[in-house]
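hi got a favour to ask and not much time before my train. below you get a single protein, a line of residues and a line of whole numbers that encode the local backbone shape. could you go over both lines and see whether the tokens make sense for that sequence. a few lines back from you is plenty, here it is:
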Amino acid sequence: MVNPTPFFAPDYFATQDVTLPRLQKFSLDVAQRLALDNPGGAFKALLAGLTTFHTALFGSMAATDAGISQRRTGAQLLWGDLADLQHQLEEDEALIDYKSKKDPAIRLAFFPNGRTEYSKASLLTADLLFARAEKAALAHVKMRGPEFDPALYTRLYTAFKVGRDDTSAGDEQSTKARAEAQAHRSDLTGRLSDAVKLVAAQFLRDDARCAAYFRAGLLQAPAAAAARVAVVA
């Protein structure tokens, strides 16, 4: 006797083998085929559910990608701003040393732990270093002149904070969207399993018509799908 258990499984498609790109093509294809062959509107509710879950899942995936992109862009900006801070300090170090001959507090304000502290900056220490450099530059107005612009340090710090905040926001968005996508994927694959059962019940003993709604090859890797077609041929 044929084991009927698989037919009653709640979700045929909840497997890692069904990748998101394949699932996207397959679910869209199933919905299109149900819409084209929908006798008496029997699949109206099914179609509505598939469309809703498909849109929700791949909307969440798009939000995930957008968050990752925002994080990468923000990270590039903040690391670039940190490099710019180091460059600016290198440019101003000779002047800082010259002014410090009369006022040692100037160099101490910029480099209380030595110049190398900036070259070893990390994300954990960057905010402190930017704030310190800005405060030192603004405090020692005696250094102002054509070769020294304290406002540069303020602009660098502001740009760094924008990059840092974008990185954090991108992380939060992608994490939230990933969690939502897991739930939406479960909804979609469960509804696809419902579709298999509902179509089978609609066309009892008409295997060919049932199979026409579900092109299983779309769920397989290209090489596997090609091999399957070759065997059938």
